[in-house]
Amino acid sequence: MFILDTNTNTESWALYRYLCRNIVGTDNHIKTTRLLNTVRDDVMSNKRLVTITGGSCGEGLEMRGSDLDMIYVIKSMEVYEDEKSHGQFNKNVTYYKMETDDVKPSFTYLLYEQNFTNTSLGDCHKLKLDNGKYYLSSKLFQERLLGNSGNGIIHGPCLSDEAEFLDQCFCLHCKTWISQATHWILRSDNSWPSYNVKQRIIKNGVLLVPKRTKGSVNKNLEWQVSFSLSEKMLVMTFTHAQLLCYAILKILLKDVIDTNGEWQGLISSYFVKTIVFWISEEFPQSVWKPENLIDCFMRCFNRLIYCVEYSACLNYFIPEYNMFEYRIEGCKRKELLIRLYSLRTYGWRCILFSDQISNWYLSMWMDHLEPYTLHTIEVAQTLNSKILMVSNQLNVVNFKRGNYVNKIGIRQIVSYNQSSLKYLYIHYMSLWCARNAQTIPLTSPRSSNKRQYNKYNSCCRTLLHTIYHDAVSGWLMLASFFYKTKQYSKALYIIVYSLSKCTHEKLNRFMDMSDLHYQLIKLKSIQKKSLVRLWKIMLVDFMNFGKNSWLIPNELQMELENRESCIPSIVYAYFLQFLCYYHLNNVRQCQKCLHTLQRVIAEHYLMEKDTSLQSGAYNILGIALHLSGDREAASLAFMQSVEIYPHHRYNSSIERISLMS
């Protein structure tokens, strides 16, 4: 029985409003984020990989310290448990059979099946011979992927970047529900999850990720069953109060529990999510309301303490798998319990030790938020989303997609009657075209005139589709094309048009919105527009040049050595304008562009509050000054760039200073 404390109703409502406004976002914001993820994943998927945004971001949550988890399901390899339930086998797919006899629950070996594939054993060099049978080695699988990526580290089942912000998990798919998790189908008699949700989860099957257990004899051959897709679907069914309860637990874990001590890192947010699943199954959905938020949180927190006390956190789908085994034990467990008991003496107010929630009481006197205020909050939260910014670059995995993405996008744009979905696909197709156009070689000594002409037209056509994801950057990419083909007058015409859009009411990422912006967003005509339509009109996004881009000016080629280059659009516009006049030998206009560029950078006008982008702006200024012959001023600009962002690998100003000396 769920006993409610009616004395905390007022505090629960205040906490609910505070989280919506300042940390998690409104229900509508969460839905928008999820829809953005879904469409982006669809556009990014190709004939070789299915792309899925995982982790908290995939669930619609972005909180302080959140990273970006991307899941890539390899289509050319497939897993099955029982050949009778599998159905027809595809000759173009390599199949592996699950063997679970000698492994712990939730883990398996993957036996190479020669009977159902035309792939020769010699081609599958990730396989390892063991007792006369061939098994897919999870260790070699990861090492090969790491070698292909060229950088990063192995972090659990994922490949992570140096900053550990981006986790990429390459995995295999078993299209049928596995026998180890059969009990879950019939376990719950309550309303959550519903029958229909369960059926959709079962239909999606499970994933297999390269993760091993401690102490296993053949751990390098082990794979773990992952229910990432199932868990994502379950979180999608949460009420907003349920999601906020999950968010509070994550905040408590990261900001209060996991700060220091021997217990640091013992409890992950995955364990917290598992506890919320168990609690959700035990009680009806009607309990998860804003006025019950604190009671729901305390029930989950007490369950967490219980799990640590008994060193048992059972996997939600396979309860035989105790995720705390060999993890929460000994002295570390005792110290962790002391910490948890201490926090429990404060009751629900233990969450106030987090600086994110410490001033929540201001919401006690907050009235119901007006629709325009909610819309403003949603706009601001999306603008400040680092995860959306990174994921929107659509190049997390460097696989050639050819025309496949283009076909998906066009098909979806044509087929959907709902205008909001059409605009989403147009938005992401525009982003993809901006990346794809940069891969088309504009010059080649071996190409015939006809072939060169076709490439020119192909690039130009692609660039005309890049103007739909924001107000300026797509036009400037087209201007770059004309600059690279030495059509300076055309480039200048487009630059002037682009700069005419860079007005005070425009938005850019990580900005502090002014009264002008708030008044503008209040307008009903603006509120009626979806976020992606708003970006098309009002967002001045930064320029993003991929590695070996054919569209970046030759003067900036150093910026692309082993990395991408991001430049504030307004800075790039004036720099490109300067370059055009420089090649036209128009000294007066060159000086005018330089002065304006200096003023824009000094005033941070329409520039993102990001150290790498601000550093890049001074680097651009230094290059322009150096071309104009002012070596001293150029050196000062480069030094300013280094002072803001002193990273040798990602800031070419360091190398430019050494070349000048």
TrEMBL record:
Residues 169-234 form the Mab-21-like nucleotidyltransferase domain. InterPro entries: Mab-21-like_nuc_Trfase, Mab-21_HhH/H2TH-like, MAB21L/cGLR, TPR-like_helical_dom_sf, TPR_rpt. SUPFAM superfamilies: TPR-like (SSF48452). TPR repeats lie at residues 615-648. PROSITE patterns: TPR (PS50005). Keywords: Nucleotidyltransferase, TPR repeat, Transferase. Pfam families: Mab-21, Mab-21_C. Residues 245-326 form the Mab-21-like HhH/H2TH-like domain. One of its GO terms (molecular function) is 2',3'-cyclic GMP-AMP synthase activity. Gene3D superfamilies: 1.10.1410.40. Its EC number is 2.7.7.86. It comes from the Eukaryota. It is an enzyme of class 2 (transferase). Belongs to the mab-21 family. This is Cyclic GMP-AMP synthase. It comes from Mytilus galloprovincialis.
